[in-house]
Amino acid sequence: MNNLEQILEKTKNIHLVAASKYVNSDTIKKFFYLGITDFGENQVQALAQKKEILDDQKLDIKWHFIGTLQSNKINLLIKQNPILWHSCNGLKIAEAVNKRLDYKLDTLLEINSANEESKSGIDLNKAIEEYLQIQEKCPNLNLCGVMSIGSHSQDQDQIKKSFEKTFKIYEALQKYGARICSMGMSNDFELAIQCGSNMVRLGSILFKN
Q1: Start and end of every Alanine racemase N-terminal domain (predicted)?
Q2: What does the pLDDT look like over 11-38, one tens digit per residue?
Q3: 3-state SS of the chain?
């Protein structure tokens, strides 16, 4: 069993998003034909460029935006009509996107569950309140779950705790329509799945030679 087959087996009951930040459109095309349909980009400009190339080739790719959204890139992101915006990190950016949308955009609230200054995302203690505020004030955003990045640590217990905190918030938000708990990247996706993740974002582990 090769590397890709192993990953597909480990994520067979999980929504797999290939984080394609460091690969070109030809590589995305190759992996699309190997069975991966969802690709996530960190930068709006890169998403627009790759999407344009691959749309011309009639590939039915589901594009996700997984990076921090800068306010001057909102219009360009909206033009791409991604299937999911993973990284809404608070009410302010939510309102800015909402007022420019003319369609419903599926969105995840990004939570800084590791409480690390290097990470974006809403504070754990504010997450539920902010989620409900966004639902109330931003009718063009279809909030459908949460996203977080695991603790930047070699300590598995610490990483696990950060995932468990996100999952606890996800559970509390299920009665408000949350159905996606996006946790886990190349280094920690198996642990994230153990902690309840139903969507993972994999880059280096997929695309390594």
Answers
A1: 3-207
A2: 999 999 999 999 999 999 999 999 999 9
A3: CCHHHHHHHHCCCCEEEEECCCCCHHHHHHHHHCCCCEEEECCHHHHHHHHHHHHHCCCCCEEEECCCCCHHHHHHHHHHCCCEEEEECCHHHHHHHHCCCCCCEEEEEEEECCCCCCCCCEEHHHHHHHHHHHHHHCCCEEEEEEEECCCCCCCHHHHHHHHHHHHHHHHHHHHHCCCEEEECCCCCHHHHHHCCCCEEEECHHHHCC
CA angle 207, 14, 63 (to 5 degrees): 60
Q: How many CB atoms lie within 10 A of CB 157?
A: 8
| pLDDT tens digits for range 196-205 | 999 999 999 9
Domain ranges of the chain: 3-207
The topology (CATH level 3) of 3-207 is: TIM Barrel (3.20.20)
Check: CB of residue 200 under 8 Å from CB of residue 188: no
Residue 132, number of CB atoms within 10 A of its CB: 13
Amino acid identity of 90?
G
Spatial contact of 208 and 163, defined as CB atoms under 8 Å apart: no
